[in-house]
Amino acid sequence: MYRLVILDFDGVVLESIAVKTNAFRTLFSDEPDHIEEIVDFHVKNGGMSRFNKFRYIYKNILKRELDQTTFDRLSERFAGIVFDAVIRVAFVPGAEEFLSRWSTRLPLYIVSATPERELKEIVEARNLGKYFQEVFGAPRNKTDCICEILVGSGTSGSEALFVGDALNDLTAARDAGVRFAGRVKDGDPDVFRGAPGVDTVVADLSGLSHYLEGKT
Questions:
Q1: Rounded CA gap, 119 and 182, in Å?
Q2: Sheet of strand 4-7, all strands in order from the earlier edge strand to the far edge
Q3: What pLDDT, in 10s, does the model give residues 150-173?
Q4: Residue in 73, 146, 147, 103 with CA at minimum distance from that of residue 13
Q5: How many CB atoms lie within 10 A of CB 203?
Q6: Closest to 191 (Cα-Cα) out of 46, 24, 92
Q7: Do the Cβ atoms of 185 and 60 come closer than 8 Å?
Q8: Is CB count within 10 Å lower at the N or C end of the chain?
Q9: pLDDT bucket at 88, cuts 50 / 70 / 90
Q10: What are the DSSP calls for 77-136, one per residue?
Q11: Kind plus residue range of the DSSP H or E element containing 182
């Protein structure tokens, strides 16, 4: 039985993965020799904060120093590119119904790699704050955030479910000692196939709701 549910945000609550991918393509459009490698790295590392992605890109792909001024400029520009798009993007199918229904039955939390201040502004702009006990984001890593939730709520890892759409999310769940459900959009490859520690894989939050009906 689960006593609480923790949701990733992009790709779990909102269909905002493509927004972030397009933002990376725009942000590094002046690096035509490296743009496809940069975008590929971003896509393959869902669940990693944009800050860590910037550091990796400069060190391992562009092979240039990333000074603080450039880092701050990238961070500010990225936030500007994505914010308006994210507050308009569609919900994952079943998300609105899931939040309305399950927030009255179980404590719900968000743990995301999106910067926390920006994430809270998006949640507020979309009138979602009423559904969540707390909202956690970068620069804190997901494992630490999940552990903070467990301690604060007095919940054991076996009683908590983290729902994510990336292998980094599964790693965070394992490291925090909580159970895990993967969201794989219809038509996308199942990155969780055969991975240990996955309780279930769902196509959307309607599927998650059906799953929880038998588990709470």
A1: 21
A2: 134-138, 108-115, 4-7, 160-164, 179-183, 200-202
A3: 999 999 999 999 999 999 999 999
A4: 103
A5: 16
A6: 46
A7: no
A8: N
A9: very high
A10: HHHHHHHHHHTTSPBPTTHHHHHHHHTTTS-EEEEEEEEHHHHHHHHHHTT-GGG-SEEE
A11: strand 179-183
